[in-house]
Specification:
Blueprint lengths: L4 E5 L6 H9 L17 E7 L2 E7 L11 H15 L2 E7 L6 H11 L5 E6 L7 H7 L8 E2 L8 H12 L6 H8 L4 E7 L5 H9 L17 E8 L5 E8 L12 H16 L2 E7 L6 H12 L3 E7 L7 H15 L8 E3 L8 H15 L5 H14 L11 E9 L4 E7 L6 H15 L7 E5 L11
Parallel strand pairs: 1-3, 1-4, 4-5, 5-6, 7-9, 7-10, 10-11, 11-12, 14-15
Antiparallel strand pairs: 2-3, 8-9, 13-14
């Protein structure tokens, strides 16, 4: 499905191309102080806080005969607006409303395209009068914006969302898309945890050098493999073996330092991280540090107790490690804990199955409609607090990306929401949408009021 189209229209030199460049994230349109730099329609793929749409930068609208160059430019601009799903009508708040702005407004009022009024260059006190004057153009309250400095983008998002946010995604569709490529699975852990032995057992061959000496593996090695699931389907996997990561104080040799850096880069590259722990040695602080690093990088995490075939007091060991993980990884509860044996192969199929399921949750995308139905129930069951007696008005939440699932909550004073309430929302979201223990990002965005100034 093609993205909705947004056209930027306004008289020359009000900042249309500056906004265009900000939305596409590149300097595709030339920008200069002199008017009339843009002549042809320029299009680009825009992303505004997760909203994706097609943006069209138009020439400055001038009231000239169609036989002249400015007149032909105006015809192109009119065509762009007619083809758009919504038009951003931009005025210069510092210069105030001029007759040409009023002429454009009269034309826009008779078009069928919805119009959002934007007062650019509204930063500071110099733009206040222009913002107020723009109300008389007949398109409601203008959105105060600074295209150059990025101020006012939250309010712009709020205004554009009804026109460009199409709910055409679902968790099931995202899971199917995630299954298309090979599972990028990195095996990490302390030295001599049995990483290379485990991978050799998966492959059914001695592909990697192993031995009792710690630190044999130095480079991160990627190997393509095919795993057969319980239904007989071949599932592609890219296995990444990494160097053992010791405590920083014990990493002395230059070569070992480079190996550890390479292992950290492998974490960044992978989709799912398997932290392999030697069951005969138990959980150590370094294991928690490796797990925390993977979660901080936004990777899906599975923890496996290796050498389970020779572990003593297995039941108490498993429960002890599980309790220590829940306490040591407070930001994510319930990380999958598996038992495997690289020597016998026991538990490997279940480990890979859980890794695929974890990637599905990590790749999941929830439609805005589903999100906000959950959100209404969540705040009704537990309303946000009122710091200092001022009520927080949470308006809506939207997903801006997956892998890991990342969301933005919009509303008045939501930046004052305490961490405890943010955790409540994240945990509720995990339960509602089946995210399990994958990292879930939730940030708060409150619109800035351009008329609020420091009283100093």
């Amino acid at each position: 499905m093609p993205h909705p189209t947004v056209a930027i229209i306004g008289r020359p030199n009000v900042g249309k191309s500056t906004l265009f460049n900000r939305l596409v994230g590149k300097r595709l349109a030339l920008v200069d102080d002199q008017p009339g730099v843009t002549r042809d329609r320029r299009e680009g793929d825009a992303n505004l806080l997760g909203l994706e749409f097609r943006i069209v930068d138009t020439a400055g609208f001038e009231d000239q005969d169609v036989a002249t160059l400015p007149g032909r430019m105006r015809v192109q601009t009119e065509a762009a607006v007619e083809d758009a799903d919504v038009a951003l009508f931009m005025v210069d708040a510092r210069a105030g409303i001029v007759p040409l702005d009023e002429e454009i407004a009269r034309w826009l009022r008779v078009t069928s395209t919805p119009v959002i009024l934007v007062a650019n260059k509204a930063e500071g006190r110099a733009g206040e009068t222009g913002v107020i004057e723009a109300m008389a153009l007949g398109f409601g309250d203008p959105i105060p914006l600074s295209a150059e400095h990025g101020e006012g983008v939250v309010d712009l998002f709020d205004a554009l969302r009804p026109y460009v946010d199409r709910e055409d995604g679902s968790p099931e569709e995202s899971e199917e898309q995630a299954e298309d490529g090979p599972l990028k699975l990195a095996i990490v852990g302390r030295p001599n945890a049995g990483k290379s032995t485990l991978i050799n057992r998966m492959l059914g061959q001695d592909r990697l050098i192993t031995g009792p000496e710690a630190g044999i593996t130095r480079d991160s090695i990627a190997i393509d493999w095919s795993w057969t699931d319980g239904d007989g389907n071949e599932r592609p996997v890219r296995l990444i073996d990494t160097a053992g990561m010791r405590k920083k104080a014990r990493v002395q040799e230059k070569l070992e330092k480079l190996s550890v850096m390479d292992a950290l880069r492998a974490i960044d590259f992978a989709e799912v991280i398997v932290l392999l722990i030697d069951a005969t040695r138990g959980l150590e602080v370094q294991d928690l540090k490796i797990a925390d690093r993977a979660l901080q990088e936004g990777r899906a995490l599975v923890i496996a107790l290796n050498k389970w075939d020779v572990a003593e007091n297995a039941s108490s060991l498993f429960n002890g490690v599980k309790g220590a993980l829940d306490e040591g990884l407070a930001q994510v509860k319930g990380v999958p804990l598996m038992t495997v044996s690289g020597a016998t192969g026991k538990g490997i199929d279940q480990l890979i199955k859980v890794a695929f399921e974890t990637r599905d949750a990590w790749s999941r995308r929830i439609s805005t409609g589903q999100l906000n139905r959950w959100f209404e129930r969540a705040i009704e069951a537990n309303p946000p607090p009122a710091p200092g007696g001022k009520r927080i008005k949470a308006r809506y939440v939207t997903q801006v990306k997956s892998r890991p699932p990342s969301f933005v909550l919009f509303g008045t004073r939501v930046d004052q929401i305490p961490e405890s309430y943010r955790r409540y929302l994240v945990n509720s979201m995990r339960k509602e949408f089946g995210f399990g223990a994958v990292p879930v990002r939730l940030t708060m965005r409150a619109p800035k009021n351009p008329f609020d100034h420091d009283k100093n």
